[in-house]
Automatic annotation (TrEMBL):
<dbReference type="Pfam" id="PF00296">
    <property type="entry name" value="Bac_luciferase"/>
</dbReference>
<dbReference type="InterPro" id="IPR036661">
    <property type="entry name" value="Luciferase-like_sf"/>
</dbReference>
<dbReference type="InterPro" id="IPR011251">
    <property type="entry name" value="Luciferase-like_dom"/>
</dbReference>
<dbReference type="GO" id="GO:0016491">
    <property type="term" value="F:oxidoreductase activity"/>
</dbReference>
<keyword id="KW-0560">Oxidoreductase</keyword>
<dbReference type="InterPro" id="IPR022526">
    <property type="entry name" value="F420_Rv3093c"/>
</dbReference>
<feature type="domain" description="Luciferase-like">
    <location>
        <begin position="12"/>
        <end position="294"/>
    </location>
</feature>
<dbReference type="InterPro" id="IPR050564">
    <property type="entry name" value="F420-G6PD/mer"/>
</dbReference>
<protein>
    <submittedName>
        <fullName>LLM class F420-dependent oxidoreductase</fullName>
        <ecNumber>1.-.-.-</ecNumber>
    </submittedName>
</protein>
Length: 318
């Protein structure tokens, strides 16, 4: 099982420079890759550049970048620029994001998200490998001056159309906050889609919240991550079956995040996260491996554990 680290995955009230501390620690501990997520606070390419300048060797992946916000060339140019400045391979992750972010933050319509994901992934597949001297995009009179960024193309997927896009174009498919049972089902869909596309299946990774020997604040942060998924199709039934029906109903009624965190029992974190003592977490990692996951991207809780040091140290490379 490969293990990487997410410097910032989703919005919360942690210090704005916490992602840099997480990345520096991950690099020092020997993790091979750090993800620079994108959200209302951080632009993923700016953050990836800052991480590259603050670390020594860790590989970088920018995103998932919302495909309704940036065009394929802008994404490819951003990754190539980060690679030149940092001297590191830089990968790109694509995702559809949410209406709350795309329309509520960027003021852009989130229309045909699955089609936009397919169009951007297909275009990026070529743009990320365009050689110096070639046209910046097919047919352009402008020529590429920056070398290809050298990292993988990742597609965040959950629904069938997104999985088909990942199977057809990506080097890696990304899941977010999933149970081992969901990994098994989604991997089967990925293998079938790759066979239809005539491609070798992409590697399968998942962002998973993680907190080893968590403080109460750490656990609350993990539960806050889970709260946003209580109304998402494909998750509602799983949480209800896990005995969390009351929280699911509250979410459907429009309860705010703090209310949902209070309604979620601590055991809820065990459904889709890595929480507990080191032995418990290691056993959980083994369960994800057996389910078919190739890579876990740790989203360390930093509340009560600055930079996620306790968690990243416990789960770091031997």
């Amino acid at each position: 099982m490969d293990i990487s680290v997410v410097a910032v995955g989703r919005e919360d009230d942690s210090p704005v420079d916490e992602p840099l501390r997480v990345a520096v620690l991950a690099d020092r501990l020997g993790y091979r890759e750090v993800w620079a997520g994108e959200g209302p606070t951080w632009d993923s390419f700016v953050l990836a550049t800052a991480i590259g300048q603050a670390t020594e060797r860790v590989a970088l992946t920018a995103g998932p970048v919302p495909v309704s916000v940036r065009d394929a060339y802008t994404i490819a140019r951003g990754a190539a620029g980060v690679a030149v400045i940092t001297g590191r391979p830089v990968g790109v992750a694509l995702g559809t994001s949410s209406k709350r972010v795309v329309e509520g933050v960027h003021g852009r319509p989130r229309e045909r998200p699955a089609a936009a994901l397919e169009e951007n992934a297909a275009a990026l597949r070529g743009l990320l490998h365009t050689a110096v001297g070639g046209p910046v995009v097919p047919g352009s009179t402008f020529h590429r001056r920056l070398a290809p960024p050298g990292g993988p193309l990742t597609v965040a997927a959950f629904g069938d159309r997104a999985i088909a896009t990942a199977a057809a174009h990506a080097d890696r498919m990304l899941l977010d906050i999933v149970s081992p049972e969901q990994v098994t089902a989604l991997r089967a869909k990925l293998l079938a889609a790759a066979e239809r596309a005539g491609r070798t299946p992409p590697r399968l990774a998942a962002w998973l919240p993680a907190a080893v020997d968590p403080e109460p604040e750490s656990l609350a942060q993990v539960l806050g991550s889970i709260a946003g998924y209580l109304t998402v199709p494909g998750y509602r039934d799983m949480f209800t079956a896990a005995g969390l029906g009351e929280a699911v109903e509250l979410a459907a009624a429009g309860a705010d995040s703090k209310s949902l965190v209070r309604a979620l029992p601590p055991r809820a974190a065990g459904t889709v996260a890595l929480v507990g003592d080191p032995g418990t977490v290691r056993a959980r990692i083994d369960a994800y491996a057996e389910a078919g996951l190739d890579e876990i991207a740790l989203v360390p809780a930093t509340a009560g554990d600055p930079a996620g040091e306790r968690t990243l140290t416990a789960l770091g490379p031997a």
